[in-house]
Amino acid sequence: MDTIAELIEFGYECEYLDFKERQYDSDKSVDLIKDIMAMANSRHNGDKFIIVGVRDQPEGKEIKGIDLIEFIDSSNYNQLIHNNIEPDIRFDYFKYEYQGVVLGIFKIYDTDNKPYMMKKKYKQLNEGQCLIRKGSTNNMAKRNDFDHMYLNKGRFEINFLENALHAVYDTEGCASIEIVLTNTTELPITIKNGNLYIRNIDGEELSTHPVYGLNEYIGADYKLSLPPKSEVLGQLMVGFDSLDPVRLSIDEFGVGAAEFVFELILVDVRENQHCTTMNNASVFVDGDFLWKVKHKKGNPHKFRTHRNILD
151 — phi, psi (to 5°)? Predict the structure, then answer.
């Protein structure tokens, strides 16, 4: 699955995504500095993108593209940013072909060393000026923004440790997958809810599975707290029911032929979203979860849980 293609097709302007119709020429150098700085300072934990060559309108996006002859070398942009913003911001600018036209992509990444601000005066931008992306606009950073930046040094990371979701807990109505959660920030982080999304390789959402606990089934009211500088490993428990094998085209033996894309999004008590994705994932199903699949194929199923009738 191509992340950039998905952003172009389905994305909307927000704290990690912006669309520009034209490249930043020399007359737009101030706009470039402001946009890169604001994106780098946003509270989004992952990569941020500015996609050039797309006109974003309320009625939809218009793919304008960029003339290859006029494509601006990334070194020009890097020099401007590194000469004027401190600390250094890591970003790339590169060509991307989409629907037969060339677009320009700014990818801004590894922005853990906030705040990023002007190191000197440049045109109408003053030394020490700091902008932050909020929603779809750039704003002057305020006291609470700086508090958040300094207190949230580090990051919260989620990593899958296996590539298969195991739907075997039919009595509890849940499935599990092994993950590791790492909190390298200076603050405790408490996860209050989350969802595991399963998509096909074309990006179509097939099923959604709410998170119900780690290493044990708790339910929708679970809370998971990680102290500063801590890490926890375990089986993430997510909701699963007998319709999910049908949605995922699982056969009567509990195996699916398709490869899936998993996206896990966890939300903490400060409403920050933490996410990770995994390609080439699979789903294994067993027990009473399979009764609807078997019923559709005309195969009998003997229930092993407390349920004795068809739902």
Answer: -80, -20
pLDDT at 60: 84
On the question of a cis peptide bond just before residue 87, with omega within 30 degrees of 0, the verdict is: yes
CA separation for the pair 92, 109 (Å, rounded):
9
Model-wide pTM > 0.70:
no
pLDDT tens digit string along 112-136?
889 999 999 999 999 999 999 999 9
Please tell me the distance from the alpha carbon of residue 95 to that of residue 154, in angstroms, as a whole number: 31
The pair of structure tokens assigned to 111 is: 């922005």
Tokens of 282: 């699979």
Q: Is it the case that residue 95 has pLDDT exceeding 50? A: yes
**Domains of the chain from N-terminus onward:** 3-151 (3.30.950), 156-296 (2.60.40.10)
**Which residues lie below 8 Å from residue 62, measured CB to CB, with a gap of 6+?**
54, 55
Question: How far apart are the C-alpha atoms of 282 and 154, rounded to whole Å?
Answer: 31
115 cis-preceded (ω within 30 degrees of 0): yes
The per-residue pLDDT for 309 is 43
56-60, 263-267, 298-302: range with lowest mean pLDDT: 298-302
- For residues 85-122, one letter each, b for 16 or more C-beta atoms within 10 angstroms of the residue's C-beta and e for the rest, the string is beeebebebeebebeeeebbbbbbeebeebbbbbeeeb
Whether the pLDDT of residue 204 is over 80: the answer is yes
Strands (DSSP E) found in the chain: 17-20, 48-52, 54-57, 60-63, 85-86, 90-98, 101-109, 117-118, 131-134, 137-140, 156-160, 164-169, 174-183, 189-199, 205-214, 224-226, 230-239, 260-268, 273-285
| Amino acid occupying residue 306 | H
From the list 277, 204, 209, the residue with the least C-alpha distance to 6 is 204
